[in-house]
What we know:
Layout: H1 3-9, E1 19-20, E2 28-31, H2 38-52, E3 67-72, H3 84-87, H4 91-101, E4 105-111, E5 117-125, H5 128-131, H6 135-147, E6 161-163, E7 169-171, H7 173-182, E8 190-191, H8 196-211
Helix pairs in contact: 1-8, 2-6, 7-8
Amino acid sequence: MDAHEIEGLFTRSDGSYLFARWGRPIAPIVFGVADETLPVVKGAFEAVCAMAGHHMTETDPELGTNVMVFFFRDWDELLAVPDLDRLIDGLTLLVARLSEAQANQYRVFRFDAAGAIKACFIFLRMDDVLSDLPAQTLALSQVVQSMVLWSDLAFSDRSPLGQLEDGRVVLRPDIAALIRAAYDPVMPAATEDATHAMRLAARMQVAQEGDS
């Protein structure tokens, strides 16, 4: 993956470059799934955090929980979640817009003073498309898309996941390498400077040479 490809993954539909990664350990909680699915979602977070060199925690000292994953059948169900409207500005309008668009997923990020991610809300409306996906595939896809602030167009034509010959679904090696580079301590936690993509490409190249 070269710098041009990387830049595209963080260039938004309005043409602006915007990158952010987590600035604190991740403390997830999941709503709306059976007990046996909880370890699958938590396992996806653990695997991707370990790959990125990032940390998880049981409790965020400021927020308690900083990643909330909601599974549901209809967008209107969100309006009945206690205090969610206090966490998501304009929740009623958002639900109306997503319902009209028949969207099946949406993510809302919150940022700290330095621009790093401090919270993420993941909403998954389990329509026929999402319901047909294995739990491991759905969980991994959502975790990857919440680890950094990707462009709103980043995966519109190609999934961040790939499939092995034995049928197992895994994170694409190039995306895994990019996330590892993004979490390198020498890299900024947030930036609007497009030259950041060249720095990421350089870090990926250094890592690849080190592995060879």
